[in-house]
DNA sequence: TTGTGTTTTATTGCCTCC
DNA sequence: GGAGGCAATAAAACACAA
């Protein structure tokens, strides 16, 4: 549509085209290009590529501002010997190419960030596994203890209620301290005996397998605070233990 | 030379803004 | 409602291997 016919006077000659043998000039005068009737009267022509000089100037203009105001479009068209519509189309296509390039760049950047994060995550998982293995190896009694605690807390519900009730009858104003100490020591002793250790020392490998207790016993000892089961809030302690158990097994 | 893939120029249709 | 932008697409020009 925008191409001109052979024999049309050429004020602005596309240099590359002019040097091509057998190829007609693509551009004509600015005045002719601005006349709509000119295009209407021309027979459809195959499209031609812009010259290097034209592209160079268009690129420079695009770098300054990728949007095209009407004045700039007209001025560029005048300087390049192109139709204003052609300049607009070139900018349109150039913006599309820029957007595609930008998307590719963004994709590469995000992919690199993702890979770095994934590697970091894998490292953390490995560290986590290593720490869990250390815990399981160096304190085998800990595993048993966690299981015991869960079972014991469930089993203690009934007996605690009975003991507390009896204590309250004997010493109604001192039950908190006395009962806590009593129950804490009781629970601690029960746990260590039921998981097959004394609460001090280490298990041998065969003891780990068979669960037989040596004289040395277990090298893992839970803090006393863990056994300080308050009479009035042992439900909260149970919840805490549940959290610990969950942490350990997950 | 020819087939094929890529790039560039241009069109069409739809949407938004003034 | 017209101008301009964008996405999708057509089609010519170009590059290049076989």
Automatic annotation (TrEMBL):
SUPFAM superfamilies: Homeodomain-like. CDD domains: homeodomain. Keywords: DNA-binding, Homeobox, Nucleus, Transcription, Transcription regulation. GO terms for cellular component: nucleus. InterPro entries: HD (IPR001356), HDZip_class_I_plant (IPR045224), Homeobox_CS (IPR017970), Homeodomain-like_sf (IPR009057), HTH_motif (IPR000047), Leu_zip_homeo (IPR003106). Residues 41-101 form the Homeobox domain. Residues 43-102 bind DNA. One of its GO terms (molecular function) is DNA-binding transcription factor activity, RNA polymerase II-specific. It is found in: Nucleus. Belongs to the HD-ZIP homeobox family. Class I subfamily. This is Homeobox-leucine zipper protein. It comes from Zea mays (Maize).
